Amino acid sequence: MQSLPPAFLEQIASTYELSQEQTEALVKRLSDDASDLLDAEALHISVTALRNRMSGVYTKFSISGKGPGKFRKLHDFLIGKYRETQSNSPEQNTSTDLAADINALIQEIREKVRKDVSTRCGTMRVLDMEQPIGIGDIYTNVNILEKLSGHRRLGIEELWQDCNIDNFDRFTLGQVHQERVPALDAVERYDKLMILGKPGAGKTTFMKRLAILCNQGEFEAHRIPVFVTLKEFAEAKGQPDLQDYIAQQWRDCKINNSEWLPQVLETGRALILLDGLDEVQAAEHDRVLQTIKEATQNFRDCQFVMTCRIAAREYTFQQFTEMEMADFSNEQIAEFTTKWFAAKQDPKKSETFLKRLKDNEPIQELATSPLLLTLLCLVFGDAADFPANRSELYKEGLDVLLKKWDAKRNIERDQVYKKLSLKRKEDLLSRLAFVTFERGDYFFKQQVVEQHIIDYIRNLPGANENQDSLQVDGEDVLKAIEAQHGLLVERARGIYSFSHLTFQEYFTAKQISRPTATLKRALKDLATHITEPRYREVFLLVIGMLPEADDLLQWMKHQVDQLMRDDPMLQSLLENIDTKSISVELTDKAAAVRAFYLALDLDRSLALDLDLDRSLALDRALALALARARALALDRALALALDRARALDRALDRALDRAGEGELKIKLEALKAQLPSIDEHDVWQHWWKTEGTAWAEQLRSVMIEHRNIGHDWQFTAEQKATLRHYYDANKLLVDCLNSDCYVTKETRQKIEKTLLLPMSKLEKQNVRLTRN
After folding, report:
1. Rg (CA), the chain
2. Is pLDDT of 483 > 90?
3. N or C: the chain end with fewer CB closer than 10 Å?
4. What are the backbone angles phi and psi of residue 125, rounded to the nearest 5°?
């Protein structure tokens, strides 16, 4: 960006009546080509203070809008003013002529490179895509984090601050809570920008999008887009410098005038996009690094954007501002998905995809990565659903990160530790996941990870025996796993976690289900965690990984049955439910009917297949009416009370429709007749305050007498907690049975037959099964 003389800037500041502080900010920002950070340091103020001063400057110059585009508007305005002051100067006339010449030259070159840029940057083809797809068709605007997440000085407690671990709100684990900036705004703000990101974060796609926008004149229209894949540049014959490499690109576009490129670079009329610094092999690393530094120094007025994986290497580019590519938000996931299936001419599938994603949080968590979201779209596109055995889906995602993503692009990474094969990396990650997950550690300190790595690699053939050398190896392996695969991520300075909780759960399940002599003990230990919500996904994954799941399912069933074994009142509840399920005489499985009546007492719904016939529908309608009456008693606000009253009225109508003819219907009609008109608000409120509680008790008595439901059990807080654990554990057991697991028919029938039975019945069933 062209700088302006300080004397002119001071004069214009006086004309527009800027304050002293605003004048200092204006002169500093417009008279050099530095960043906000460097200018703020030069003025001995914070970046925030500098931006506040500039906000006042924009106001004085009547420049509105948001984002970094305001700075460019101010720059262009002042350039125009400066040229006006120089309009009578012969030197200025010459300069104007030269500017006209360079503008004409730029347009001519843009026309010549247009097709090449469009061909190289207009499409993407990744993973198992059968054909390329237009980037413009699927591109979703990405965001940038202005502060690298791994550089934040936070403790583990602070990382937990926004996570609801008591209710296991899994989706917020590891989420970065800081302001996101549209990536395009960040490029506009900084002339030299380094974008860091995890593998598959969308860095290359964003760079290609920049090239296309510039190519189409929609971004930096006064510049020529130059897209350089740094791996190809590093491997080019003759080891050219950057200028010679760009010159070769232009010669391929029939641009043979050797004087044009120096003019373009020296006048700052190129948008130079350097993609994939991490993909440069170690042998070429120093040379490429030096070439880039020289280019940014020699052509300081050009705009440079460079990408690199986080933790790939330690780089020092003094003039570059570093930012981090943010994960996709829910809105971006929806936008990408909609565009993807529209491009595949199957737009309706996106609605189904997003619904399935919403119902499956572990998979939804993976979708925050653009690469893994692309994989999910590919998988879903073939089958119109996700695999029933989701461990297979997670394995495919891990295969992408561990080997396919680089292999598909012919990228060979430097092997930091020669003996650590892909299999060994998976074993190492499984051990780390299991140990940390078992302790409830989702964030762990760097030295903890490194020690696990050291303990593992010291037993490999050819491992270093020297402790200091092992320490270095441990750190190098950690950085390699982070940079090459993105499976471990530095969340704050010196604090790591798995990139997705889903992967920590997957590797934990992989460790538990290993076919070793200790497998039965591992499965039995796992069953003891059946009431812990955070283990739910691990259970489902282990079930899917086992060649035969009978042992684990039976141990889970045993743990469930023990939860309420010693509480007589809770056992009475189960006996009442069992008696009720027998009395309705339905063709459905007895366990399914018991689940229905347990759900009525809990206001929940167990995931068992059950078509409601007239008898069950009646009981649900009655239970709903009683629940509405309870809620009405708690409402004090008029609007809420009236809403509850209307809901109660509708519930009673449904119960009457299903009650048939007889004494029950007569009593329900009598109860409904007692209710005053809802339209008479004051009368209704007064009646409910004086008569409502007694009326609700009459309804309960009718339900108990005629349907044997609606009992007020008066459970203690501890009993309610136990009952919730029992309910959730049974639901998990049913979900595991209904998953893509292999279990013998005998075990399945035994578990289904004895679900939700009181201990008295269970003991009889066990005796009978033993005799048989």
Report:
1. 34
2. no
3. C
4. -145, 110
Q: What token pair was written down for 183?
A: 């990536």
Spatial separation of the C-alpha atoms in residues 241 and 203, rounded to whole Å: 24
What's the predicted TM-score (pTM) here? 0.77
Taking 50 as the threshold, does the pLDDT of residue 212 lie above it? yes
Tokens of 538: 């691990």
Q: How far apart are CA 385 and CA 37, in angstroms?
A: 48
Q: Which of 122, 143, 112, 277 is nearest to 208 (CA)?
A: 122
Task: Give just the sign of the alpha carbon dihedral 175, 176, 179, 181.
Answer: negative
In angstroms, the Cα distances linking 601 to 627, 639, 715, 746 are 10, 27, 11, 31
Report pLDDT digits (tens) over 431-446: 999 999 999 999 999 9
Confidence band, pLDDT 50/70/90 cuts, at residue 92: very low
CA distance 677 to 360: 44
Residue 419: exposure state from Cβ atoms within 10 A (0-12, 13-18, ≥19): exposed
Q: 3-state secondary structure string, 366-398?
A: HCCCHHHHHHHHHHHHHHCCCCCCHHHHHHHHH
pLDDT above 90 as % of the chain: 41
Neighbouring-strand partners of residue 194: 306, 322
Measured CA to CA in angstroms, residue 49 lies from 21, 55, 378 at distances of 10, 10, 47
Contact 261, 299 (CB under 8 A): no
Q: List, as own/partner pairs, every contact residues 720-724 make where C-beta atoms lie below 8 angstroms and the sequence separation is at least 24, other chains included.
A: 722/563, 722/564, 722/567, 722/570, 723/564, 723/570, 723/573, 723/602, 724/602
Asked if residues 47 and 40 have their Cβ atoms less than 8 Å apart, the reply is yes
Beta bridge partners, 488, equal 498
Question: Residue 571, exposed/middle/buried by CB under 10 A (0-12, 13-18, 19+)?
Answer: middle
Report the SS3 class of residue 325: strand
User: Residue 605 and residue 628: Cα distance in Å, rounded?
Assistant: 17
Written as six digits, the tokens of 14 are 């006086």
Q: Tell me: pLDDT of 305 over 60.
A: yes
Residue type at 540 in one-letter notation:
L
Q: Give, for 103, the enclosing helix (H) or strand (E).
A: helix 90-121
* Tally of CA atoms within 13 A in the half-sphere of 607 that contains its CB: 12
pLDDT for residue 91: 45
Q: Say whether 322 sits in a helix, a strand or coil.
A: strand
Calculate the dihedral angle through the C-alpha atoms of 441, 443, 449, 455, rounding to the nearest 10 degrees: 0
**Count of residues making up the chain:** 772
Of 452, 446, 453, 444, whose CA–CA distance to 420 is shortest? Answer: 453
Report the alpha-carbon distance of residue 398 to residue 341 in Å, rounded.
24
Residue bearing tokens 């598909």: 408
CA atoms within 13 A on the CB side of 184: 17
C-alpha span between 424 and 456 (Å, rounded): 9
> Which residue shows structure tokens 């907690």?
721
How many whole angstroms separate alpha carbon 772 and alpha carbon 767?
Answer: 9
Provide the terminal-to-terminal Cα distance of the chain, rounded to the nearest Å.
Answer: 88
**Phi and psi angles of residue 331, each rounded to the nearest 5 degrees, phi first:** -65, -40
Whole-angstrom Cα distance, residue 194 to residue 274? 9
Burial of 126 (0-12, 13-18, 19+ CB in 10 A): buried
